[in-house]
Amino acid sequence: MSYPETYTAFRRTTGDLPNTIQQTQETLPKELGPKDVVIKIRAVSLNYREHATLIGTYPVQTDAGGIPCSDAAAEVVATGSAVKIFKVGDPVSPHVAQGPFEDTDDGVAVAIGFSKEGVLREYAIYEEKHLVHLPKDMSWEEGSILPCAGVTAWTALDRLTHVPKNASALMQGTGGVSIIALILCISAGIQPIITSSSDEKLQALQKLHPKVRGINYKTTTDMGAEVKHLTNGRGVNFVINNTGPQSIMDDVGFLCERGGTVSLVGFLHGFDADWEPRRLVELMSKSAKIKGIAVGSKAEFEEMNRYLEEKKVKLTPALDRTFDFKDSKEAFEYLASGKHTGKIVIKVAA
């Protein structure tokens, strides 16, 4: 398959906040480098940070007027003369954080959609080393939710490498990372517990699998007691923190007696906290750990994809709503509304 000289993309507007996105026309080079791969983007999924960049709260420098979004499923349509790993027709995805995880010479992290042009466009070119094969028999929409939310959930659950007997996990909120983590938990036999302020959302999620348990954090007076109740007094092995620093020490309190993990993956409630630093001693008594998740490495992305393929894990329950490419601005507005459960996807091409 060949590729066109021009294509449509969306770029962030510039000027006073909040910004929005607008459609533009872009060009592709006629000549490819030996390691270049041209991809036709089929689907793009949104993360909260896409909205945060438009309102100025994302804590990473972002190119003004750049092409947003980091997560895409795409098809290879052309390759450079020295490309060996990919062929035309392969379903692929760019790896989100390109840099130190891939042992590049400069050791500088490049985040597509932020410090480098993103994927909200019809075509893109990446070096062979920046792409991964997607799992077989997965839809474009499912594949598009893997690069950031999927790998984040995977690494937050310690890559499912050591799953204790009767393990459980607590997911904060019903966003993409939480829902994918819930699906991974079910696949690995981990008891999933998920929180929301909406009983309607919790009831819908509990229909996915008999093991799913929900907690309405607005109406539950003692979260710790409820977590203990749902885990027969053991506490959870994993907490996936989407809200930020404020709840971290409460999260440590939810953990099991020995060796639990709190993974900090988001900042929905901001960056401040009012707990006393001495409370960190609680980590010692539980031999617990707090770890920050910066998505994950390319190797971890590939490892997760192998797991999903081998286990035949279906991610369709993580899909909330799909928008046409021309309606990308409406997709961003829906993201800002917070009404979704799971991932919002933009279908770029059929």
From TrEMBL:
Taxonomy of the source species: Eukaryota, Fungi, Dikarya, Ascomycota, Pezizomycotina
Protein name: Alcohol dehydrogenase
Pfam families, sorted: ADH_N (PF08240), ADH_zinc_N (PF00107)
Domain of life of the organism encoding this protein: Eukaryota
One function term, GO molecular function aspect: oxidoreductase activity
CDD domains: MDR7
Location of the Enoyl reductase (ER) domain: 15-346
